[in-house]
Amino acid sequence: MQFQTIRLALLSVVVLCTTSLEVAAQGRILRKHMMLETAPLKLVPATNKLARGSASIKFSGRYRKITSNGIPTHRVGAFPNAHNPHKVTPQPHKFLVAYIPRPASKPKPLPMGTSMGVALNGIPFDPMAAEYYNGQRKGWQYNALGGAIPLGLDVNYAHVQPTGAYHYHGLPVGLMQELGWRVSQPSPLIGYAADGFPIYALTAKIDGRVKKMRSSYRLKSGDRPGGRHPSGPHDGTFINDYRYVEGAGDLDACNGARVTTADYPKEIYAYFLTSEFPVVPRCLIGKIGKGFKKR
Which residues 6+ apart lie within 8 Å of 18 measured at CB? Predict the structure, then answer.
């Protein structure tokens, strides 16, 4: 099965100790975690068919308007589940992105609480989770796809926010299947980033042949600092375990590259979802549109 390799490519983290709760300065509750090691990620099977999903993409002046009720047409995991107590409920999603996107002077990191983009089915991409070592915001942030903090992700690498919003943390496997994604073909259009540039998954046609697009992020060598910070080797438990190595892969620091596609035959900058970290890009090269700040 083509998607088996996708699932096997991602790691998770063994829970080594208990967690507690801490109230952050902003009033949000942050859990304290002390987990340090990786292990295979366990995903909830997608056995549930939800009520009718709807999404539309229309043009509004210089913008592309994407609306949806937040319900995917593909099957999802059981929610609530043991590690995600929330139920999927309809959402009034409305996103506005530039029809002709333009890069800014320099890329900017994706702010916490902001979706990286939206899939064609109107479901947001949210790569990060507000989970930190010892509950220290702006410290060592756990990799949401690592599994150190059980998030109840289903096989679409998605789960549910307290608001009832279903969202992707990684490769939207069910959507990719619906769109006819094949490992031997260039990726179909998957969605649009918050800055209006297109999003594709895993494959592209380069120099006349289809290839898997590789991330340029690599694990750091050696061990973490320890002390008030986590110890142990850089193994992918934290996003801080990775660093961008220019030229190590096919993609830049925002997991993007200039490519020609069926949708953009004259070449365009595009973001790619990858099987390796960061999977979903963590920075954007253009101005963030409206509707991507989570409520």
Answer: none
Is it true that the peptide bond before 40 is cis, omega within 30 degrees of 0? no
Total-model pTM:
0.89
E-only strand ranges, 131-278: 132-133, 158-160, 166-168, 191-193, 198-201, 203-206, 209-212, 217-219, 242-244, 256-259, 268-273
Partners of residue 286 on adjacent β-strands: 103
Which amino acid is located at 17 in the chain?
A: C
Q: In this structure, is residue 9 part of a structural domain?
A: yes
Closest C-alpha to 254, from 271, 236, 274: 271
10: containing domain: 4-286
Q: Tell whether 49 is covered by a domain.
A: yes
The per-residue pLDDT for range 240-287, each reduced to its tens digit, is 999 999 999 999 999 999 999 999 999 999 999 999 999 999 999 999
- Cβ proximity of 12 and 147 under 8 Å: yes
Residue 273 belongs to some domain of the structure: yes
CB 254 within 8 A of CB 246: no
- Domains: count for the chain: 1
